Amino acid sequence: MSVVPDHRTTLPMTGLTHGGRSPVTCHLRCGDACFKPVPNETDNAYFRDVATRALTRRSVVAAGGALAVGAVAATAYAQPAAAQASGAPRGAANAAARPHRLPFTPIQPVATTVDDMTVPAGYDWHPIIRWGDPILKGAPAFDANAQTPEAQAAQFGYNNDYLDIIETNRAGTRGLLVCNHEYTNENIMFPPGTDPEQLIRTVWEAHGLSVVELERKKRNGKWRYVPGARLNRRITLETPFVFDGPARGSEFLKTAQDPDGTKVRGTMNNCSGGTTPWGTILSGEENFNQYFLATGTDPREKRYGLGAQDTRNWRSVDARWDATKPAFANEPNRFGWIVEVDPSNPRSTPVKHTAMGRFKHEGANVIVDASGHVVAYMGDDERFDYVYRFVSRKKFKPGKGKAAAAHNRKLLSEGDLSVARFTGDGLGDGVSDGTGTWLPLTRDGQSQVPGFSLEEVLVFTRLAADAVQPTKMDRPEDVQPNLVNGRVYVACTNNTDRGKTDKEGTTEPNPRNANKDGHIVEILPNKGDHTDDFFHWNLLLVCGRPEDAGTYFGGYTGAVSPISCPDNLAFDSTGQLWIATDGQPSSIKQSDGLFKVDLDGPTRGRVRQFLAVPTGAETCGPVVHDRDTSVFVAVQHPGEDGTWDAQKSHFPDFATPGAEAPGDFAGPRPTVVQVRRTA
Rounded to the nearest 5°, which phi and psi values hold at 230? Predict the structure, then answer.
């Protein structure tokens, strides 16, 4: 047997990470992105003007010799104006008034060394499904010492991220679990001596998505997954996909393996996502660049972070990962899209939507506007990148019939793509807020960017967006419309490069230099119209420890839980916000967790911690079924800093070497967890 390649343990960022990440996460998830030059090198005078206007109106307070941002916390956001401008759907007030079925006493912050799920008193937790659990008919039981591509293709994938739990019968006893699998950690997945090609082909099958049927005895009970069920499915880097939309068949998508530019093999780095009103799943392809060998000299490649950095050496097994070869120069262009999957039809072909643009998608989340148009919000998860919106050309067709379903599955194939410019009004009013504009990139099937064809706008969306001067944000990740109050929430995870030499400094929507803790932006569509190109915005949270200078909790001045690095967002049935974090172990030296945030009334901005995940893990894909007294999270990369011989976590089975445990694996397994109220 060949030895495992050295790239399994090469971590160039050890001791040098930025923005609250483990060096292992930086290396494996995003290819050490924050250790490399920022892909967005545009020098936009507009942003300097915004910052200048803000600085001339804000109060300058001496705080350790620096400009304090404490003025942000001077007053609470004006609730009557917020409610009026939000265009909250009818019934929002009634939803907020309903009794909540997930009352809890906030947990205390948890040390990063705790290798356990920590939940509030009166709640318990259990794993629903783990990496390697067999889901397709004939799949073998998980055996970490005997992994094969064939076995992994029929088992639950690795590093679960986006998650949804969808009830499929009226009794609430049947359901579907749909989950993304973002990336792999070969160091803790495989024993030394694993054949390199076998390892690579196995991790290809560990990427993608899983669809798994669930069952339980009664509503409010514990879910269990059903091995071999009819709808169970694995979608991997070997699954056929098709392109749709205006760039389908583009010269920029053609390769030797697909000379028509209409289909592609597989999906990868699937981060967050969304569930559509017509029952399909949207999944965002994010840090695809790190898997390709490229020259990195072409501006189009550089803007997407492509270069000579393919440390996993996938090109040794398949030449399509070598973009320096003319036959596969366009292969990177075939990733970075929003993917749509129909979980109710295991034989359906997944689609990559070119109309929605190509960048490092965290995900896409949709709302049906009062006009009937479907509006999708998206974030480009990179330092100094942008927030996007897509508006469908056709209107949503209600109903559960086949005709309505077929119509709605095409809604994301045609429409208008735009990018956000946030304008601050200065801090003289005591709050960080202002107005904004959706700048058109495409409209009515035509490019709106001078010098860019329609295909260029969609395949090289980052460069087209640069040309229209949107606002550079601090790693915009989840962008979620709230179906109760009609507002939209943007999780800006962090950006420790802000304010560095030759880097943009503070702007009102990004108010802190060296932003290690992140913030939440609240967008209020003009008159509640999500298709309108004008909006209002404010900062809901400026995260960190409450005692830190510049933190802001929506105007709330009572006790709050410390929170840092907001990542994934969710809402409960009353419209309150839940935030999953990614990076707290480095930024505030506490385990990542899930937090509830009040959005209205006198407690607006109050943050309370609901749970904490095990050592080394990140909280992903929160799903809040408060009427069902359950919360679900995808626990990703537990024990990420370990090795095969020195594992740092034993979650969720907590087996020790030599002990009997499910799978006989004394190491961590990324897992979907149900947290349930018991008292």
Answer: -60, -40
User: Which DSSP state fits 444?
Assistant: T
H or E stretch at 540:
strand 534-542
- Asked if residues 379 and 387 have their Cβ atoms less than 8 Å apart, the reply is yes
pLDDT tens for 614-667 read 999 999 999 999 999 999 999 999 999 999 999 999 999 998 776 655 556 899
The DSSP output letter for 205 is H
Q: What is the pLDDT of residues 391-435, one digit of tens each?
A: 999 999 999 899 999 999 999 999 999 999 999 988 788 789 999
Q: How far apart are CA 125 and CA 128, in angstroms?
A: 10
- CA nearest to 361, candidates 353, 372, 370: 353
- Whether residue 258 contacts residue 163, with contact meaning beta carbons closer than 8 Å, is answered with no
Q: What is the pLDDT of residue 475?
A: 97
**DSSP codes of every residue in 304-353:** TT-SB--TT-GGGT-GGGBTTSGGGTTGGGGSS-EEEE-TT-TTSPPEEE
Q: How would you write 380-404 as a 3-class SS string?
A: ECCEEECEEEEEEEEECCCCCCHHH
**CA-based end-to-end distance of the chain:** 54
Q: Which two tokens stand for residue 34?
A: 């924050």
The number of beta carbons lying within 10 Å of the beta carbon of residue 307 is 20
pTM: 0.90
